[in-house]
Amino acid sequence: MGNSTAPLAILADEWLQPSAGEIRYRHDLYLEALSEIGRGAGTIADYANGYRYFGWQRDRTLCGWWFREWLPGAQDVYLFGDFNGWQRTQLRLHKNPDGVWSAFFPDAMYRERLTHGSLYKLHVHGANGWLDRIPAYATRVVQDETTKDFTAQFWNPAPFDWQGDRFDATALGDLLIYEAHVGMAQQREGVGTYREFADTVLPRIKADGYTAVQLMAVAEHPYYGSFGYHVSSFFAPSSRFGTPEELKELVRRAHRLGLAVIMDLVHAHYVKNLNEGIAELDGTDHLYSPPGEAGNQPYWDSKLFDYAKPQVRHFLLSNVKYWLDEFHFDGYRFDGVTSMIYRHHGYAELESRELFFGEGVNRDALTYLTLANRLVHDFRPCALTVAEEVSGMPGICTPIRDGGVGFDYRLGMAIPDFWIRMLKEVPDEQWNIGEIWHVLTDRLPGVKTVAYAESHDQALVGDKHLAFRLMDKEMYDKMDRASESVVIDRGMALHKMIRLVTIAAGGDAYLNFMGNEFGHPEWIDFPREGNGWSYAHARRQWSLADDGLLRYAQLGAFDRAMLALVSDYRVLHDGYPYNLRMDDANKTMAFSHGDLLFVFNWHPSASIPDYTLPVREAGKYVPLLSTDEERFGGPGRIAMNSEHFSFPVAEAESDRPHIRIYNPSRAATVYLRRK
């Protein structure tokens, strides 16, 4: 199998040496899978073409349409729809030795009946009975407003005009991600559309300084409140937001604005529903899943993929290529990677080496993810991939050639959990400065990390996002600039400080969930029986950020200024921040990036005049940005026109030059060294 003696750069890490055999074996599994693909199809990009074979495919030679579906366990399969008067057993498909059922629909018979927008389903006879099903490769699925039933739709529009779109996500500079959900992105109560998002939200994202938008809930999902994580149709953009062409237009317009578009890709599991999804599609419980209980995701009430089965890998890899090819997405955030790569799905308490290299690891999932990264970077070299992986599995972001899985970035998932714990459990005056520093900088060299203070996870009902946790009910009537509230003052100060320290020290890229940049009040609650099917909390109140009389606008202004500073001075490209001082007694931390000096005083009340701290280089230090500025809702204690000249301190703990500053409580200031 493969070449187990090939040198792998990942093994230069001494900690991994005891596991060298397992690491080589995993790499050989990938090489063998890639070799099998090469023997049958050539390149992996040539192989991942299931969306060009299954489903509806035009045959220009025979003048008609082929329909194909892989259903090896089915006993009988019929295709029916409005084009044949919904007669279930009139059009029987034929099965080949590979378990692919197909039928040809000649233009001579179906030109006037099988038309763009026609509705259809499969009628499948299997071990689970006779069931009406939606094909796995359906590219358009719509829901009947009256019956709420989902049905596949024959989709054959005029070719979309991409107008020469050739976006390069690798040329972005800073990766500043705006995580967004199209349906809840509008102020009105209801479901937003791709068109509305392109018209009203994309320009806002660009103006705020973000460089990428990460779209959730793209693939079709029957339950709106699942946030798109219980996918039913992997090749169909959610029709509740509009048509596939409107999604393409959204992507094209984002590219025109200079924004990359990253898709939240869910290949960790799929919905259990038989009416809408791919579960038991051929009548067996092991078409796309392992058989029996092994095919269930017990924590998410969903089904697992069988990554060892070649046909399942083909399905998923074809899905990876499909969204890049047909919709010009610029890469993926792979959801639930931890669940994929462990048979215990990350719910285990083990010592680190046993966790990473023991029997609980799903090698087949690691092989699939490595193939997926190879496909993305071969087919679209300018695309990027992000892993939602919390365990710290070695090699996740190591290049494939070096023995890794090949992701470009991983999410710094420990950071938001840390901030929530601090706010819930630790009084301000007891915050440990060294612990803050450790959590933010606890990442391996070469593992590019997306830092974030909060994402959609912290905004859902059952949790609280940072602004709501900090200010709670006071946000309802004390966010106007005329009101006085110590709760609001504290909340706004910490909201800004937490974001600034996270982006400055936490990683190589940054993510924010839409609306959180201006402290959007309340949680997210999708319409459900428990709230009277209300959309009141499944929307974004942009007017709060745009109202200059409210403090939300000040938080939004700070976010824009923060991103501009980070981009202008290439903070995210500077690697680890340089630790200058961790002063737990005064709750003050100081670190630098290049010529920028960051000073954070987390103390709730102790402001320190003439605070002396070391700097890396001699020079004049002037404030560029402060959370304390009045334009950002602060009390304005920092003189932004001040100058601080370095001086030698013979008795200092080092021979570094020092400066003196006013160090106000619960404030952060960024200084620039001028030579």
List keywords for this structure.
15 helices; six-stranded antiparallel β-sheet; single chain; alpha/beta; eight-stranded parallel beta barrel; globular; 26% helix; 675 residues
Give the gist of this structure.
26% of the residues lie in helices and 21% in strands. The protein has 675 residues and is of the alpha/beta class.
Explain how this protein is built.
It is a single chain. This protein is of the alpha/beta class. The strands form seven sheets. An eight-stranded parallel barrel has the order 10-11-14-17-18-19-20-21, surrounded by four helices. The chain has a six-stranded antiparallel sheet with strand order 22-23-24-29-26-27. Strands 3, 6, 7, 8 and 9 form a five-stranded antiparallel sheet that branches. Strand 4 and strand 5 form a beta hairpin. The chain is globular, with a radius of gyration of 27 Å. The N and C termini lie far apart (59 Å). The model has no long low-confidence stretch (mean pLDDT 95).
Average pLDDT level: 95
Cα gyration radius (Å): 27 Å
- Fraction of residues in helices? 25-40%
Tell me the total number of β-strands. Answer: 29
As residue ranges, the low-confidence spans are none
Strand order of the biggest β-sheet? 10-11-14-17-18-19-20-21
Spatial separation of the terminal alpha carbons: 59 Å
What is the beta-strand fraction? 15-25%
Structural class: alpha/beta
Count of discrete alpha- or pi-helical segments spanning 4 or more residues: 15
Note the main sheet.
Answer: 8 strands, parallel, barrel
Cα shape: globular
